[in-house]
C-alpha cells in the first residue's frame, strides 16, 4: 500500500509542479499567508484574517497525522494550497472527519483541488475513517461541483447561515460515506 503521508511531486494541468506533503512547523508563515489571501476574498471561507502567529503555530502543532492531518501544496517553499481533516473528538463521532480546503488565487482550476481532496480521502481511508463531512457556502459552485464529483452528497442546508458583504448565503452540509 502506498503511504498516504508521502511527499509527492505532481504536475498540474498548466504544467506547473507542486509537492503534496504533510505540513511541518516551518510552514506556519506561508500557511498563514495562504489562509489570509483566501480569507481576504471573503466569499469562500469563514475565516477573514489571522494575525496571531503563535495561535497559528499551536494550530499547526496539533496535526499529528493520526487523528487529524494537514496536507500542503508546496512550490519552492511557498504554500499555495492546503487541505485538512479533523477527526471527531467524541467516541460516538470518531469515525467522522471534517474536511477543509483552501487554494490561493492563481493556482485554481488546474487540478490541485482534486489532487488535495483525493489525498485527504486516501489518508482517511487508510486511517479507518468511515465518513468525510464538510460545509460549503451555497454560492461556491466550483467547490460544490468538486465535492459532488468525488461522491459527496448534500445532507442539509443551514439557511442564511453566513453574511458575505451585504448578502446572506446558505451553508450546505455535505457528506461522503467511506465505509462498506
Ligand atoms: C474550491 C477549490 C478547492 C477547487 O479546487 P481547484 O483546484 O480550483 O479545482 P480543480 O481544478 O481541481 O477542479 C476540480 C473540479 O472542480 C470543479 N470546477 C473547477 N472549476 C470550476 C468552475 N469554474 N465551475 C464549476 N466547477 C468547477 C470541476 O468539477 C472540476 O473537475 P474537473 O476538472 O474534473 O472538471 C479551490 O478553487 C479553492 O480553494 N477555492 C477557494 C477556497 C474555497 O472555495 N475553498 C472551499 C471552501 S468549502
Annotation keywords:
180 residues, alpha+beta, Aminopeptidase, eight-stranded mixed beta sheet, 4 helices, 8 strands, globular, binds coenzyme A
Give a brief description.
This protein has 180 residues and is an alpha+beta fold. It is 26% helix and 37% strand.
Question: What does it look like?
Answer:
The protein has 180 residues and is an alpha+beta fold. The chain has a domain at 8-129: Gcn5-related N-acetyltransferase (GNAT) (Aminopeptidase), CATH 3.40.630.30. The protein contains 4 helices and 8 strands. Strands 1-2-3-4-5-6-8-7 form an 8-stranded mixed beta sheet. The longest helix has 15 residues, at 112-126. It starts with 7 loop residues before the first strand and ends with a strand.
Radius of gyration in whole Å, from Cα? 16 Å
Mean pLDDT: 97
Shape: globular
- Strand arrangement within the widest β-sheet reads 1-2-3-4-5-6-8-7
CATH level-3 fold name of the domain at 8-129:
Aminopeptidase
Structural class: alpha+beta
What count of helical segments does DSSP give? 4
Count of DSSP strands: 8
What would CATH call the architecture of the domain at 8-129? 3-Layer(aba) Sandwich
Q: How large is the share of residues in beta strands?
A: 35-45%
Write out the distinct hetero groups bound to the structure: coenzyme A
Q: Major sheet: size, sense and barrel closure?
A: 8 strands, mixed
The level-1 CATH class of the domain at 8-129: Alpha Beta
- SSE pattern, N- to C-terminal: EEHHEEEHEHEE
Question: Uncertain segments of ≥5 residues (pLDDT<50)?
Answer: none
Helix content: 25-40%
CATH superfamily of the domain at 8-129: Gcn5-related N-acetyltransferase (GNAT)
Q: End-to-end span in angstroms?
A: 19 Å
